[in-house]
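So, read this over?
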Amino acid sequence: MASMMYGHFSLLFVLLFTLDLTLACRRCPDPPKPVEDESHDKKTWLFAVDGRRQPYNFLDNDGELVGFDVDFMHAVCKAAKKQCKMVLSEFTECIYTHRDINYPGRGLMAEWFDGCPGFVTAVDREDTFDFTDPYFDTYASYTVAPGNPSSFDPTSNDFSQFKITHLTGAVTNSKCLARLKKKVGTIIVAADLPEAKALLLNRTADVLFSPRSKIPGLEVLPYRGRCDNGGTAIMTKKGSRLASWWNPAFKSLVESGEFDRLCDASRAKYNSRIRCKTSPTHSIPSDSEHHHDKVWLFSASGRRAPFNYVDNEGRLVGFNVDFVQKVCEVAGRKCATVLTEFTECTYTHRNVNFPGRGLMGGWIDACTGYGDTLDRENSFDFTDAYLMSDSFYSVAPGNPSGFDSTKSDFSNFTFSK
């Protein structure tokens, strides 16, 4: 059966534009911009956790959200004189995995909340997220069913004969294994820890790759690796100003000894090992250093080599990534290319192209690599073109339907796009 593939090599930036309001106010003066007084910040900063990570965040017998993350948040926010609250949210609203690429969750991108505590900084996350300074140490471990029935050896560099599972959105993934120079075969992404545990116990998977040191009913092998780029921190949307006030406040707790006291108290309070960093690093500029500058976010799916793709070690690279950065440098703008699924930019339903929720909801400012077509101009605006675009017809090997692209009558063929 013949199939048709429309070329998307192009292209053009897709930029959302509110046509009626802009046309009506084209000659109107710009309204005055409000002046923010950071010393009297009225915003309530929201931090999202899933409530399933004892001793870091969990629901006690009365249903109250407690744990080290909650205590730590209150301590830092008090030092920064900020209003903060912890909210419950599924962790997939922060990050999730689809076809071996980690994407940011809708909750973080749509700004339902400002940060997700307890996420590891890593190479394959830093293209898509910003992070506060890390406050926990972390590692990567290998977990097997009791007795290690597959005789998995974590010290080997060849894992190709084993089926490895990891949690969706986890930093312990195929990209980390590539950075560790491990040869891998089958990777199974589990929706949550109970699913991963079941995969091991029913022998669908041989090993779980995770940052866990203890999983009831399973055997965590003693070998440890590293997937992180500094430790565990609060993960934020690109361009967030959270770190600009959080990091100085956190630093003040470290220097006063209050952070050490909080860690010691939490170990006793929750009867658990809290892996606080002994010497946290500090790198994000303080509140006074231009944190009001907007960061323009450009979307990329990570599946369009050579224009944008995720390399073997998890870095987002490609022509579009380089091009955006160079144009932004010339324009004197702060920009970042972030991973989002292409349907957040545009999708087709009943043969009509509609704008995606990511672009319409302000998760991102533009989508790179889209052709400027007549039917798209009903919904989008475009920058000037920077690449040529072509359309192609693709068929099964040998062209079994005898499709002739030079003909004008395609009515006897079924098309896929």
Remarks:
- The first strand starts at residue 3 and ends at 5.
- The radius of gyration is 24 Å.
- Residues 67 and 398 are 62 Å apart (CA to CA).
- The chain has a mean pLDDT of 87.
